[in-house]
Amino acid sequence: MTNHDQGPVLFQQCMDKLDWVFVLLGTQHSVLLVNQERLRRFTFFVFHSSFHHILPAKTYAQLASSARLSAITILVDFPFSHSLALASTPPHCTCIGVATSIFLLFVSLLFFLRRCYLNKIGGFGTKMSNRVVCREASHAGSWYTASGSQLNAQLEGWLSQVQSTIKPARAIIAPHAGYTYCGSCAAYAYKQVDPTVTRRVFILGPSHHVPLSRCALSPAEIYRTPLYDLKIDQKVYADLWKTGMFERMSLQTDEEEHSIEMHLPYTAKAMESHKDEFAIVPVLVGALSESKEQEYGKLLSKYLADPSNLFVISSDFCHWGQRFRYTYYDESQGEVYRSIEHLDKMGMGIIEQLDPISFSNYLKKYHNTICGRHPIGVLLNAVSELKKVGLDMNLSFLNYAQSSQCRNWQDSSVSYAAGALIVH
């Protein structure tokens, strides 16, 4: 495909589109450039044009081990006698000569052209193989119960205690902590969901574990929950991918992140009466600048305008305490937990104004540790776009809670809020 250090560049462009990928690497530097985590699903082929570029066999072995590859095949085109230098090739590495190299490269080219013809090489919405990629419910059993019956009973219990006051919601804001802490609060948001009109659920969650300056889409087709599996709308994913504004997260990143997963059981429960009639659109939101929040808001505004779509904005509110490196305290409010509540509700009031600039100014002034501030910013900018064309919207918060009541500097807490947006 390429030569020397340009290999990883084309590899990154093509790896999501093929089952087999040939990468031609020439130096130690080019090996280090390859994102090893994303290689784990591919067999990796290495080709070198001259003996002095050959790396020690153990380098490839280490790469295979760290990337969890099934095999590495080292293709060499120098005289066979030189290949004796690779006699120590580990068991999971194979060294073959020039004739076989040429043959395999030719066969791989045929496979490549066949894939291009059959699949028209796309980022999303194109079936590359018969294997369905599933995201497991990785936080089940820790952040919430892995028992489907127990989970169903818990969700029913919380939802039964809440009134449906502003249904149907076009968007909701709800927390993503363990259900022991925020399950009852989240019910206030999900009670406003109308499954009879909702056919697509966008879930925007902040990235907690990986640095991300844009938004990312999942490589999965199915999200598992203890209740039932949720399918991703691959057509919408394909449309979003074509904009060039999205990255593709790895399955490992997806499964390590909790901000989206914590909304899956509640989504499944709220939609259970029409569980075969809807799909989800999970979006991992990075640390966006104000201008990028505006760009994503504008892009997603057309989906927010559609009554058959529901937007779930995943966010906790203030993370207070020394372990969060945030100890803002307004003495005029009395106890620390009351100061936190006052700060949070100030921000909630600004969000209810549906003004992204005011919300941004609030964050700059108080630096409140609202982890879903960027998904909220995207929603507010989407609303602003729709208000320009005359849509009348209203957002109201329905519940507020704290994980504990802080009274001294050694305490810590996380705040939760549930709100819903309706279109008149």
Automatic annotation (TrEMBL):
Organism: Aldrovandia affinis
A Pfam family annotated for this UniProt entry: Memo
UniProt cross-references to InterPro entries, sorted A to Z: MEMO1_fam
Name of the protein this chain belongs to: Protein MEMO1
HAMAP family assigned to the protein according to its UniProt record, in alphabetical order: MEMO1 (MF_00055)
Similarity comment text for this entry: Belongs to the MEMO1 family.
Annotated TM spans: 96-113
Signal peptide start-end: none
Superkingdom of the organism of origin: Eukaryota
Alphabetized PANTHER family for the sequence: PROTEIN MEMO1 (PTHR11060:SF0)
Keyword vocabulary terms for this entry: Membrane, Transmembrane, Transmembrane helix
